[in-house]
UniProtKB/TrEMBL annotation:
<dbReference type="InterPro" id="IPR013325">
    <property type="entry name" value="RNA_pol_sigma_r2"/>
</dbReference>
<dbReference type="Pfam" id="PF04542">
    <property type="entry name" value="Sigma70_r2"/>
</dbReference>
<dbReference type="GO" id="GO:0016987">
    <property type="term" value="F:sigma factor activity"/>
</dbReference>
<dbReference type="GO" id="GO:0006352">
    <property type="term" value="P:DNA-templated transcription initiation"/>
</dbReference>
<dbReference type="InterPro" id="IPR014303">
    <property type="entry name" value="RNA_pol_sigma-70_ECF"/>
</dbReference>
<dbReference type="GO" id="GO:0003677">
    <property type="term" value="F:DNA binding"/>
</dbReference>
<dbReference type="InterPro" id="IPR013249">
    <property type="entry name" value="RNA_pol_sigma70_r4_t2"/>
</dbReference>
<dbReference type="InterPro" id="IPR007627">
    <property type="entry name" value="RNA_pol_sigma70_r2"/>
</dbReference>
<feature type="domain" description="RNA polymerase sigma-70 region 2">
    <location>
        <begin position="8"/>
        <end position="71"/>
    </location>
</feature>
<comment type="subunit">
    <text>Interacts transiently with the RNA polymerase catalytic core formed by RpoA, RpoB, RpoC and RpoZ (2 alpha, 1 beta, 1 beta' and 1 omega subunit) to form the RNA polymerase holoenzyme that can initiate transcription.</text>
</comment>
<dbReference type="InterPro" id="IPR036388">
    <property type="entry name" value="WH-like_DNA-bd_sf"/>
</dbReference>
<protein>
    <submittedName>
        <fullName>RNA polymerase sigma-70 factor</fullName>
    </submittedName>
</protein>
<feature type="domain" description="RNA polymerase sigma factor 70 region 4 type 2">
    <location>
        <begin position="109"/>
        <end position="160"/>
    </location>
</feature>
<dbReference type="Pfam" id="PF08281">
    <property type="entry name" value="Sigma70_r4_2"/>
</dbReference>
<dbReference type="InterPro" id="IPR013324">
    <property type="entry name" value="RNA_pol_sigma_r3/r4-like"/>
</dbReference>
<dbReference type="InterPro" id="IPR032710">
    <property type="entry name" value="NTF2-like_dom_sf"/>
</dbReference>
<dbReference type="InterPro" id="IPR014284">
    <property type="entry name" value="RNA_pol_sigma-70_dom"/>
</dbReference>
Length: 288
């Protein structure tokens, strides 16, 4: 299959974005995209009607295979599993990757909620809602009828309906995150309690590699006590900054000058509903 350099540059971000949204793993998505292109080069060009459709089907099916095997791995994972945070500083408006990363369905909250979906539900939701594939295209990709795809999409939407546009308002959420940092650093318990929902839950992902809570921490008193306990044990060179994490404001924590933790939030009605702490070094970007 002959793919020009321009086509490669245009299609690679789309394929990565599909696979990453389905898997929540940067490394696995990158491997699948590379594998897809290598296999595509061996295909007879005359048999392919649409390169884009063909490659999207390949990357979706390979992602589905990985998802099914990942079910077992996730069951064996030590502690809560958080999607791998994606830190991207893209300045060019015409960068294809920036276009795809700005689409919906990228936040850590959204990706984590997708863990409640079956592999087919996840594929249909990503392709239909984020990338606006037609039901005819979906039927061809996952090899189900169009009517079945509609039902799968409706079922998937109902399972993660909590995430909406207002909960992803960047500037509002950034203001709340900055207030959270100030309250956290200055141990302003009253402010911290105002920012956290009564039903807040904290997911601390250490993967058994570094110390972390092995179960989700729920309720306002427990989460606030846990956070303040972390602060009391923090070394003097503890440093934080706010960065774009999966399209939303997140907190990057450094210890001894090294990135040690990425914290993301799910914010609803100006209250923090979920906190996702990713400490597993295998999920942290190298060199940040």
């Amino acid at each position: 299959m002959q793919i020009s350099n321009d086509e490669y540059k245009q299609l690679k971000p789309l394929l990565f974005s599909i696979s990453y949204r389905m898997l929540g793993s940067i490394s696995e998505a990158e491997d699948i995209v590379q594998e897809t292109f290598l296999k595509a080069y061996q295909v007879d060009m005359e048999t392919v009607e649409s390169k884009k459709a063909y490659l999207c089907k390949m990357v979706t099916n390979r992602s589905l295979d990985v998802l099914r095997s990942a079910r077992f791995r996730r069951e064996q994972y030590i502690g809560p599993w958080n999607p791998e945070p994606l830190l991207k500083e893209l300045d060019r408006d015409d960068d294809p990757l920036k276009i795809f990363l700005q689409k919906e369905g990228l936040s850590i909250a959204y990706l984590r909620m997708m863990e409640h979906l079956t592999p087919n539900e996840r594929a249909v939701l990503v392709l239909r809602e984020v990338f606006e594939f037609s039901y005819k295209e979906l039927a061809n990709i996952i090899e189900k009828s169009e009517d079945n795809c509609r039902k799968i999409f409706s079922r998937a939407k109902s399972k993660i309906s909590r995430v909406d546009g207002e909960s992803l308002h960047y500037e509002k959420n950034k203001s709340i995150v900055n207030r959270f940092i100030e309250a956290f650093q200055q141990q302003k318990t009253d402010t911290l309690l105002e920012l956290l929902s009564e039903n807040v839950t904290l997911y601390s992902d250490g993967g058994g590699v570094v110390r972390a809570a092995i179960r989700p921490i729920s309720t306002l008193p427990n989460v606030s006590a846990f956070l303040l306990g972390i602060l009391k044990k923090a070394p003097e060179d503890f440093a934080v900054e706010v960065k774009n994490v999966n399209g939303q404001p997140g907190i990057i924590i450094y210890l001894n000058g090294q990135l040690s933790n990425i914290i993301s939030f799910f914010i609803v009605n100006e209250r923090i509903e979920d906190i996702y702490m990713t400490l597993n070094p295998d999920k942290l970007p190298i060199g940040d």
